[in-house]
Specification:
single chain, about 280 residues, 18-stranded mixed sheet, alpha+beta
Length: about 280
């Protein structure tokens, strides 16, 4: 069967400098095994499959796969899949608003503004145990004196979140050679001086028998934004940069809207075609 296929770049105004995503627009009829096998073959951080919705309020259903497992939610796959669906002719039930069904339920994507933006899912905020924090700091060669705050943030994925004194401290973090017996996703945040292009630098470093840094991570940025809101610090829109440490140019645009938080960014469709499988 031929299936429509797109590949896009997400969270960067500069095409090929963001986070790549593979999107299979006609996922119906594929088994879990076939989806996982294809996601492993693409070798991208995530591959998504669009399906007819099961929730009558949704415009489509989305399944998200890394090269090794399925995710209940992820940020750049949400934006990239939404814009791919629209690019392929999808028409939302509500003008300017796309409702995506995924593992965490319905996620709304505002497509009425300059950039698409999803409503950040609810985030559970817990203390990060001292021993866990200490081991993360050792693994990333971070001076404990640079730590401002920490928390465990859960919005589908589980993040060990650490705020550092500034963006330079975030960029100095070095996890080369680190290893843990279980996978741990560590998110870093540090502020830039006022008046610059970006307000924060963000990094997401995944450590598990090796180190992998994500170019731009929508779900982590969403969790951080929810945390900032809970701390009373999200009072105006801000821009987070991510990917500088690995040669990318990620820009995540965050803005409060009442009780919600919207997380947005640019999406560029780079490849369009069909798959035979």
């Amino acid at each position: 069967m031929q299936r429509r296929f797109l590949q896009c770049d997400v969270f960067s105004p500069l095409a090929t400098r963001g986070n790549g995503l593979a999107v299979v627009l006609d996922g119906e009829g594929l088994s879990d095994e076939a989806m996982q096998r294809f996601a492993a073959w693409t070798q991208l951080a995530e591959t998504t499959f669009l399906l007819p919705p099961q929730d009558p309020a949704a415009d489509y259903r989305l399944r998200i796969f890394t090269t090794t497992r399925e995710l209940p939610f992820a940020g750049h796959p949400t934006l990239g899949s939404c814009m791919s669906w629209l690019h392929a002719g999808g028409v939302p039930r509500t003008p300017g608003l796309v409702r995506q069904e995924c593992g965490v339920g319905l996620v709304e994507v505002d497509v009425s503004a300059e950039r698409p933006a999803f409503v950040a899912p609810p985030t559970r905020i817990e203390p990060l145990e001292e021993a866990v924090l200490a081991s993360a700091l050792r693994a990333l060669r971070i001076d404990p004196a640079d730590v401002v705050a920490s928390a465990r943030l859960v919005n589908g994925p589980v993040w060990e979140f650490i705020e550092l004194r500034d963006a330079d401290a975030v960029l100095r973090a070095d996890a080369s050679g680190a290893s843990f017996p279980q996978e741990r996703a560590i998110g870093l945040l540090g502020a830039y001086p006022p008046g610059g292009e970006a307000d924060f630098e963000v990094r997401m470093i995944d450590i598990w028998h090796g180190v992998k840094e994500d170019p731009i991570t929508g779900s982590l940025n969403a969790a951080i934004a929810r945390w900032l809101k809970a701390e009373g610090r999200l009072v105006a829109p801000y821009v987070a940069a991510q990917g500088r440490a690995i040669g990318r140019h990620g820009r995540v645009h965050v803005r409060p809207r009442g009780e919600d938080v919207l997380v947005g960014g640019d999406v560029t469709v780079l490849i369009e075609g069909v798959l035979d499988f």
